[in-house]
Amino acid sequence: MTGWSDWTAADTVAEYRVPVEGDDKYSRGVVGILTGSAEYPGAAVLGVEGASRTGIGMVRYLGDAGAARFVLERRPEAVTADGRVQAWLIGSGMDRSARSPELRAQIDQALGQDLPVVLDAGALDLAGSSAGPAVLTPHHGELATLLSARGVDVDRPTIAAAPEEWATRAAELLGCSVLLKGSTTHVALPGGGGYRVQAGPPWLATAGSGDVLGGILGALAASRSPEILADPDRLARVAAAAAFLHGRAGERASSGGPLAALDIAEALPATIASLLADS
Ligand SMILES: NC(=O)C1=CN([C@@H]2O[C@H](COP(=O)(O)OP(=O)(O)OC[C@H]3O[C@@H](n4cnc5c(N)ncnc54)[C@H](OP(=O)(O)O)[C@@H]3O)[C@@H](O)[C@H]2O)[C@@H](O)CC1
Ligand SMILES: Nc1ncnc2c1ncn2[C@@H]1O[C@H](COP(=O)(O)OP(=O)(O)O)[C@@H](O)[C@H]1O
């Protein structure tokens, strides 16, 4: 595809994998999550919560040991032991300038697997270093920083003025899908074109909202891993579906009033049930 299209509820339902009778937790998908840090343990909790509430066979949280305690307090279902995964979410709540050699080795091992990978926040600089298909999830400020580091002189207001164009340029330059967050979220494909997703109410502009989105996307990517590996462009569709679910869950959580990031995650099951019922 080369054009841009508006993403719909029906498109989202088509990307959501409903469990079938013969499923087990592994066939539904396992998402590996490397997020959080001593400074931002909350980002780990929010991403794990977003993934769990999206519906997935297993969430494997393998990030910061201190953050893992908070993750397990909130979600005892999360598994903190190593093992197989079908997609990775890396970077929310991480500071790339504080990456230890041990964490770098752990990230490199994840990126070396031929699996779909979601790169957020403190892992955006790793664009182009994964063996499998990747999607980046920057906000405007992060995209400006990322492009500037790759020799493209652009600032945040310039990106805000033309998000479709800049998401496209980034996807082409970096060779992966780019989900550029905003009041309209733009998901660009590396070969051109993409999807516009109505992000939801402005109440969604709250700390940790993007961390929940990362969890939703990680879970959807794990559940659609075989399809993404067969057709890497599918990752952009899965990313658009994640943004759509995030926005509709935000609407449900808000009901016209304020919300906190965790409320978005908590609204996901009813949001998904309603979308499936209407399809
Ligand atoms: N509870 C937790 O643990 C939480 C943890 N979190 C974690 O914190 C880390 C830092 O993430 P961050 O996005 O807050 O700051 P940062 O990367 O310095 O941004 C760079 C510059 O970009 C701009 N800018 C910022 N936001 C923008 C936006 N939405 N849309 C457009 N522009 C925006 C702004 O530029 P300025 O306004 O100064 O021009 C800013 O200076 C990250 O790892 C994240 O996961 C958070 O999710 C919160 C909850
Ligand atoms: N004005 C807005 N209207 C609707 N959604 C918004 C608006 N501003 C931001 N969002 C959404 O909120 C989320 C913010 O993510 P992000 O900037 O990464 O925040 P954080 O780092 O605090 O988690 C994104 O999903 C974005 O699309």
TrEMBL record:
What's the protein here called? ADP-dependent (S)-NAD(P)H-hydrate dehydratase
Cofactor(s), names only, from the UniProt record = Mg(2+)
Q: Which UniProt keywords apply?
A: ATP-binding, Lyase, NAD, NADP, Nucleotide-binding
Annotated (6S)-NADPHX binding sites:
43, 93, 139, 211
Pfam families linked: Carb_kinase
Q: What does this protein do?
A: Catalyzes the dehydration of the S-form of NAD(P)HX at the expense of ADP, which is converted to AMP. Together with NAD(P)HX epimerase, which catalyzes the epimerization of the S- and R-forms, the enzyme allows the repair of both epimers of NAD(P)HX, a damaged form of NAD(P)H that is a result of enzymatic or heat-dependent hydration.
Catalytically driven reaction(s): (6S)-NADHX + ADP = AMP + phosphate + NADH + H(+); (6S)-NADPHX + ADP = AMP + phosphate + NADPH + H(+)
